[in-house]
Amino acid sequence: MLDKSKLPGDLWVRMTWIPQEGSGPEERPIVLVTDRRRWTIGLIPAVLGILLLSALFLAHVPAVLLLLPMVVIVAGARYGGGGQSGYYEVNEDGSLGDFLGRKIPPVLRDMRRAKSQTSAGPSGRGIS
User: Fold this and answer.
1) First and final CA of the chain: distance in angstroms?
2) Is residue 40 scored above 80 in pLDDT?
3) Scanning 6, 66, 101, 127, which has its CA 20 to 30 A from the CA of 48?
4) What is the per-residue burial (b if ≥16 Cβ within 10 Å, else e) of 52-82?
5) CA 54 to CA 52: how far, in whole Å?
6) Could you give the 3-state DSSP secondary structure of residue 50?
7) pTM of the model
8) pLDDT at 25
């Protein structure tokens, strides 16, 4: 299980997958991590872009002008999904292990999704 004390403060664990029963000892849990600061900063222009797109659409402006808010929306979404966001293996000691990428790793098909729990440290009790 992931140890919250070993996770940088600006990272947010969104989902956790654990190996199926009977899998090999080399199978490690995998977590989906989001960079909270970048996600929040990217959300602002994306929402403003959606509002601007809606306003321009309702004002019946030429279609070319609708491209500007779409560019803002895509830029905000790409920025929010960047940084240290992605899939990571969990090391034996509870820290983040190898970065597996931003796309869904194929190994998740052989795992089951669990609630995102992180251990509280030496006590071993989980926190949701």
Assistant:
1) 12
2) yes
3) 101
4) bbeebeeeeeeeeeeeebeebbeebbebbee
5) 5
6) helix
7) 0.70
8) 65
